[in-house]
Structures are given as structure tokens and as C-alpha cells.
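Title: Comparing notes on inverse folding

I've been comparing how different people in this forum approach sequence design from structure. To keep things fair, I'm posting one structure and asking everyone to reply with a full sequence. Here's the target:
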């Protein structure tokens, strides 16, 4: 069986980064479970993975654009290449949605009308 790796790389590279982000989050969460409750450890792991990908793609942009230090222009994500953007944003969105799902639900107090 001949696996079309070039096709997969061109069209599904972002999915590999999402899987990588989940793995990074799991490792960091396991480390934090020693000192934090499970839900908080998971949130810390997910936030760390999002930050990791942002830093990695920012660094890739700085190198590709040959930016001199202190690299402040690297934070201008609208200047990132399509590949850099699609490496970061799907990971950030998926992991951020998991963080939101892990957050405790806010309960409204009876008689409190915030509307």
C-alpha cells in the first residue's frame, strides 16, 4: 500500500499539530496532577500547549522573515504565512474549546436578574 504522504502533509498538517498539542497538554497535565486538582491540571496543560504552539510559530515567522532582535514584529500574527497560521490557529481553537468545556458551569442565584 502506497500512503500519499505528500497529500497528507499538504492538506492535513494542521491535524497532526492538533494531535501533538493534545499530547503536550496531556504530559503537562500529568505533571501538574501531582500538585493540583485534575481539572485545573488539565486546564494548565491545555494552556501550556497553546502557548507552546504560539511561541513555535512566532519563532518560525521570525526566522523566515529574518527579523532582528527583539523580534516584536513576530507578534503580528496577521503577517504569518498561511502554513504558520494553519499550524497555530486550529490547535489554539481546539484546545481553547476544551478549556472552556472544562470550566465549571456558573450557576445563577435565585432572584438575581442579570438580564
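Reply #1:
Here's my take.
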Amino acid at each position: 500500500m502506497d500512503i500519499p504522504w505528500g497529500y497528507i502533509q499538504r492538506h492535513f498538517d494542521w491535524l497532526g499539530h492538533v494531535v501533538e498539542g493534545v499530547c503536550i497538554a496531556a504530559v503537562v497535565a500529568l505533571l501538574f496532577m501531582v500538585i493540583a486538582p485534575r481539572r485545573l491540571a488539565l486546564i494548565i496543560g491545555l494552556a501550556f500547549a497553546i502557548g507552546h504552539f504560539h511561541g513555535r510559530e512566532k519563532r518560525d515567522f521570525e526566522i523566515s522573515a529574518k527579523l532582528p532582535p527583539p523580534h516584536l514584529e513576530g507578534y503580528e500574527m496577521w503577517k504569518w504565512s498561511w502554513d504558520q497560521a494553519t499550524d497555530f490557529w486550529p490547535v489554539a481553537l481546539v484546545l481553547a474549546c476544551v478549556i472552556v468545556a472544562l470550566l465549571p458551569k456558573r450557576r445563577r442565584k435565585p432572584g438575581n436578574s442579570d438580564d
